């Protein structure tokens, strides 16, 4: 996607500042000692595979779940004591569409406006409908909207009260690429207007559109920083192996796996990415096996995905 | 605006709930269907005024007076003497096993007493397990027998002799003699109990099951506002049901209404409030709609059995009466019967008004304390 955005200046009190959050279900620590800061005006990515604890963490942050341990402030309000204030100032878009399918678009918006005490309700509803381009369909039931429209309606409803912090839980899951891009453009517009955004996703490419990312795996926060920092922090070396035909490449893939210093082998089209932490051992193995087979070996930049796969392996070790 | 109750937020809740109720066909069907079905079912039983009921005659002496009375009774159409000239013991067996509905006993000295003008007695024992069966037959009895007797005595007897004939009626098995007039007002309570609790018991589980609870809780709405928003629209439903039932009571079943309308309305209001709050409490306790239904039903059964709707309250054993006292329906039935049929005033039904108010307060507090503000 587009170039890495420059993070806004730090220094003001963070919008999210949570420390040591723990949440267990049935004795399993689904969120395990999560510490996270998000600066005001920042777009923070919250990445991790399915079931890694993103939704649970976000629910704790907006007061929908009580943490078993840990403290923190959201927008300067204490997580445990000021849940009501947090609710008023935060916009939370749930992972699953959770507006009323048996209410029309306009009725849903009017309901939200009423609960946030926005007056006159009618003005807010009409303006939001106009922004969405849904004025002509205002009386259509929300349940009859397509996935992409539901997602846009949900976002519009969440920002109607002009929250200072927007929590988006996998907002682009199951949405087509064009709608996804438009959605991210909208998020950047909101952030430019001063809103802080925390957005969870499991799409790697979306990480590139965040100022900072936090990577969670098996409930543990294993990496944070800008994309460049996260990649660098993984301390990985990557070689690209190319130049052989299909069958020889598959054979090479097998032989590289398990060789000293080689941690990941991943085919990308007609090339192999070979990744490892120990640069010396990795280079020796790749040169010996791939070079010996007549393939071309070149050093390459480590990708975010390579870094994440590395982190996932590490977190699994922690679990055991 | 920041308090635990904002009118603006409450209005938003009420509008939303009302629209959803209007669009929910199942709720709507339940709202009108259940009262109509119950009215038709019970109304059928009420309307039957059964005739030609089997009767046994215990009459050791068959004199002309005895014959006259038996003939007169048969002429009413209610009595059909299938067993004539049986012994007392035999008659006892016949009525207890249900072979006959009545036992008419004319004592052996009846004729002599009539002749002497000495307050003759006849005894009628009626099987009142089904009060609708017994009531019509019993109500015609006194006059019919007296007339027959007078006719038989002819001009010889002084017409204005008071108490010339004493008819002693024993209602067996149902000493309170609940009549059809009791049933329709009772039905008002039962129908409200069934529909109100059932519909509100799903108020929260529906949000949870549809996944909308998470969003609702994330918005600045308070537990009190959610509760009021979810139960108040049902007052309207209660009002509609009440209108339907009272209309039917008057037009179809000719139930007299002698009391004050405002007092009845106050009673219904308190009762419906107690019920919707009970239903809402159930919805805070259950995890899904199935559980909610079961809990609502769990409450419905004792209500119908132990409130005095099915069986006369004073005829129940002590423990059953104790359970009955903690059911809103019990107090409502007392109130509605007293007001509608006996014209009771506020002072008379104060205990019932007090009890219903207590239920409202208790259920509201229970629901609020059980409400979970989080998804934990
Ligand atoms: N209410 C719950 N009860 C039991 N387990 C839960 C509950 N909510 C989440 N979990 C478990 O916690 C883990 C993390 O879930 P979640 O936070 O939804 O992950 P993510 O959003 O990253 O996909 C999952 O394994 C899920 O099964
Ligand atoms: Mg999730």
Quick synopsis:
The complex is a heterodimer of chains A (320) and B (376). Chain A has 320 residues and is of the alpha/beta class.
Task: Summarize the structure in words.
The complex is a heterodimer of chains A (320) and B (376). Chain A has 320 residues and is α/β, with parallel strands linked by helices. Chain A has two domains: 216 residues, Rossmann fold; 65 residues, Alpha-Beta Plaits (2-Layer Sandwich), CATH 3.30.70. Chain A is 38% helix and 26% strand. Chain A has eleven helices and 14 strands. In chain A, α3 packs across α4 and α8 packs across α11. Chain A starts with 15 loop residues before the first strand and ends with a helix. Chain B has two domains: 120 residues, abc type-2 transporter like domain (abc type-2 transporter like fold, 3-Layer(aba) Sandwich); 196 residues, no CATH class. Chain B contains 17 helices and five strands. In chain B, α3 links the parallel β1 and β2. In chain B, α16 packs antiparallel against α17. The longest helix of chain B is centred in the C-terminal third of the chain and has 25 residues. Chains A and B meet through α2 and α3 of A and α1 and α10 of B. The site of magnesium ion (MG) has 5 residues of chain A, from α1.
